[in-house]
Design a protein that fits this description.
By secondary structure, the protein is mostly helical. It has one domain (32-160). Helix content is 75%, strand content 0%. The longest helix has 22 residues, at 37-58. The protein is globular and about 45 Å long. It starts with a helix and ends with a helix. The mean pLDDT is 86.
């Protein structure tokens, strides 16, 4: 993975979160959805799993500095069943954590995760795979920055319950 790619992805995510911090209209009013601490934990854990998967593929030497990571790196890079599971599980955990967000956005993120998986495991062109990763990263950051309300203890729990009842 080219360093410029990683920098551009991180800069895009930072810009989206900076937008949230600077504009009062963000999150986007009626499209804002409750986000609980459980949701936040699931999205964080899933995202870390996806980052580790990418790290094992593209930044092996950096991840290898972590004691005990050799087996994980090997499993991911063998591109077999273990690698597939190590990709699908964190992606599913992220989607579960975002279950209360805008259905269209969650569907778009799910489709982008599928595109990442397909381009990774069908041994297609690296540029196509990197484009799918970039799209997934931007959609995830945009979902969190533009639609998810900050966890607000009891209020977020009540809104989440109401949101589930409406569906």
């Amino acid at each position: 993975m080219p360093p410029l790619f990683s920098i551009a992805l991180i800069a895009t995510a930072v810009a989206l979160f900076a937008t949230r911090l600077t504009l009062r209209a963000v999150p986007l009013g009626s499209r804002e959805r409750a986000f609980t601490y459980v949701d936040l934990a699931l999205v964080t854990i899933g995202t870390l799993g996806l980052v580790l998967h990418c790290g094992a593929m593209f930044y092996r030497s950096t991840l290898a500095a972590v004691p005990g990571s050799a087996g994980y790196i090997t499993a991911v890079n063998q591109m077999g069943t273990a690698s597939i599971v190590l990709y699908i599980v964190p992606a599913a955990v992220v989607l579960i954590g975002l279950r209360r967000q805008q259905p269209v956005v969650v569907t778009l993120l799910g489709l982008s995760f599928i595109a990442v998986g397909v381009t990774m495991y069908n041994h297609g062109p690296l540029n196509t795979h990197l484009t799918a990763i970039f799209i997934s990263g931007v959609v995830l950051a945009a979902t969190l920055a533009l639609f998810a309300s900050r966890p607000n203890t009891a209020k977020a729990g009540r809104e989440a319950t109401r949101s589930v009842r409406r569906q």
